[in-house]
Write a structure and sequence with these properties.
The protein has eight helices and no strands. The protein has 176 residues and is mostly helical. The model has no long low-confidence stretch (mean pLDDT 87). Belongs to the sigma-70 factor family. ECF subfamily.
Length: 176
């Protein structure tokens, strides 16, 4: 098949291109179908790939790759382009719960968890506490905390990580 692609590249040989199309068309379609493309989409991609092969045959270098590798790479790249252009799947619609008011047991549990969290935070060093407050209460990125405090970014990250580790240890008895 490399010779056929060279004929297309050098002489724009339509017969050689027909051989390439007959050989690679079904194989490309099968590959695309195995990779999750629908039948119509796979056929469209095969058409686009083979059109690209015709137009860009001048770029083919048999010393760098076999014809099959060159053509399959074009197909794979085209498939990636198609997948990236698809809109993301719509999120699932969650049903609204009718009774959203917490009951007494939930309120008591939440109050107890909040008290335990306050106690655990009080056991942190003031530096860890401030770093965690900036990151999680004020929703500041680590780089901004570093600029605000004048401390190196690594120091900020270490304080947050060590503080969170300490909080996890202190709160390990709570259910997730």
């Amino acid at each position: 098949m490399t010779q056929a692609l060279i004929a297309v590249r050098d002489r724009r040989d339509r017969v050689a291109f027909g051989r390439l199309f007959d050989h690679f068309g079904p194989r490309l379609k099968a590959m695309l179908l195995r990779n999750g493309m629908r039948d119509g989409t796979a056929e469209d991609i095969v058409q686009e790939v083979m059109l690209t092969v015709w137009h860009k045959a001048s770029q083919f270098d048999p010393h760098r790759a076999e014809a099959s590798a060159w053509i399959y790479r074009i197909a794979r790249n085209r498939q990636i382009d198609v997948v990236r252009r698809r809109p993301p799947p719509a999120p699932d619609v969650l049903e609204e719960q009718l009774d959203t008011a917490p009951d007494a047991a939930q309120m008591l549990a939440l109050s107890q968890e909040a008290r335990l969290l306050r106690e655990a935070i009080a056991k942190l060093s003031p530096e860890q506490c401030r770093a965690i407050e900036h990151a999680y209460m004020e929703d500041m990125p680590h780089s901004q905390i570093s600029q605000l405090t004048g401390l190196p970014l690594g120091t900020i990250k270490s304080r947050i990580r060590l503080g969170l580790d300490r909080l996890r240890h202190e709160l390990q008895g709570l259910k997730p």
